[in-house]
């Protein structure tokens, strides 16, 4: 069990980190360039509706049944949620913040770094949490259909052996890991943002 947890944790960490990097880049590009906003944004929204398992045949054709194929599915499965969150968060901030910053001389990188990004952080964190859940689903889909060691593969073995206790144990482990990450990482990020903006005092 420990080996399976470690293998799955390594895969989801790599895939999720890649999805954050790509998602941030795509989201910022959409916000910055009107052409991408009009043409790429609807496409990304449509691609997000695809279940992660739909990407598995492509990953197998490109990479084979190996580690890279699973990481690809994880990355593509959560990238769109992150990029949509970046785009939505930056587009929906209070325009008064931007106007006030511009009157004080903020522009370009300074405007984004000091005003737009901080104001959109709540939406961005929500998108990161959604991307995390999509990454787990993609991980399970990839591991269940491959022979590589991981929680998904152990889950499939339990199913094949009709071992309900093993299946339930894996499900409980997944829930515990998900709750732990939410509390220790995303929860603390949200608390820090509320404290910084004085929302806890309201």
Automatic annotation (TrEMBL):
Residues 5-185 form the ABC transmembrane type-1 domain. Its main location: membrane. GO terms for cellular component: plasma membrane. GO terms for biological process: transmembrane transport. This is ABC-type transporter, integral membrane subunit. InterPro entries: MetI-like (IPR000515), MetI-like_sf (IPR035906). PROSITE patterns: ABC_TM1 (PS50928). It is a multi-pass membrane protein.
